[in-house]
């Protein structure tokens, strides 16, 4: 009897081109200067001709635009339009008044973030630049926002073991995966995460999850101040205000059938 041959499934036609095109767009994540085809090729590990061809395709679709004088690329109007659309579809324009109220009540900066790979991306709040509308991308392991998103992951979110090296930002940063797992267990038990000078000296942050009905963190909400203002004695007071805000945000941002 002939042995059965297991067929090797090849990627769908065009999948590699799509992955490369998306990777090219991600090259602009750092909000840096315009990029040349050589810059894109180097970041993507592609030949310059391939990077140029992909970039020109994205220009024709409006996802990139090219400066006529320098020939460098920047994100195009289609990306801006989709960004605004998803911002409103998620209801995030409704979150700003709640964060402003939380900030006024606590005298601390307030931020709302989601997870994007190994980062917490701040979408609304004090860390969003008023001139660009862009928020910060913060490492998960060294921030209260990131710890919350790691502690209550959504389906498909990678765990601590996939984050790679955990770089130190201060002498308090957790850099060992095992210790980070222990910290996340404490976060889940207490219901909040604390960043006590782990990302920057002189900064203290407490964060809570905005949970859905499945017990997953759809967002992380943080209040940030100094150790002199956000003291141990006042921590429960800050947490009370943060949790109240998180409850209001769950009503604003989650469909009724997905709320707790």
Automatic annotation (TrEMBL):
The protein's matches in InterPro entries, at most eight in alphabetical order, are given as: GAF-like_dom_sf (IPR029016), HTH_MetabolicPath_Reg (IPR050707), Tscrpt_reg_IclR_C (IPR014757), Tscrpt_reg_IclR_N (IPR005471), WH-like_DNA-bd_sf (IPR036388), WH_DNA-bd_sf (IPR036390)
Residues annotated as domain IclR-ED: 78-255
Q: Which PROSITE patterns match?
A: HTH_ICLR (PS51077), ICLR_ED (PS51078)
What are the transmembrane regions?
none
- UniProt keyword annotations, A-Z: DNA-binding, Transcription, Transcription regulation
What residues does the HTH iclR-type domain cover? Answer: 15-77
**The name this protein goes by in its record:** IclR family transcriptional regulator
């Amino acid at each position: 009897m002939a042995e059965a041959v297991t067929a090797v499934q090849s990627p769908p036609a065009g999948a590699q081109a799509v992955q490369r095109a998306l990777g090219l767009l991600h090259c602009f994540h750092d909000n840096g200067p315009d990029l040349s085809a050589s810059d894109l090729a180097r970041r993507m590990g592609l030949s310059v001709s391939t990077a140029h061809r992909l970039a020109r395709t994205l220009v024709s679709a409006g996802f990139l635009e090219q400066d006529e004088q320098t020939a460098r690329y920047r994100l195009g109007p289609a990306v801006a339009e989709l960004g605004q659309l998803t911002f409103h579809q998620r209801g995030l324009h409704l979150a700003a008044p709640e964060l402003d109220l939380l900030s006024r009540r606590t005298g601390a900066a307030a931020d709302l973030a989601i997870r994007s790979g190994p980062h917490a991306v701040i979408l609304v709040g004090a860390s969003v630049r008023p001139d660009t509308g862009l928020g910060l991308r913060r490492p998960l392991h060294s921030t209260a926002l990131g710890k919350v998103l790691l502690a209550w992951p959504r389906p498909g979110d990678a765990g601590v073991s996939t984050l790679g090296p955990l770089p130190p930002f201060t002498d308090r940063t957790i850099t060992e995966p095992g210790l980070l797992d222990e910290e996340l267990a404490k976060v889940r038990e207490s219901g909040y995460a604390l960043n006590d000078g782990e990302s920057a000296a002189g900064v203290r942050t407490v964060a809570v999850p905005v949970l859905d009905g499945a017990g997953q963190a759809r967002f992380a909400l943080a209040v940030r101040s100094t150790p002199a203002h956000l003291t141990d004695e006042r921590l429960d007071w800050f947490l009370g205000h943060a949790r109240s805000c998180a409850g209001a945000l769950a009503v604003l941002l989650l469909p009724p059938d997905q709320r707790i």
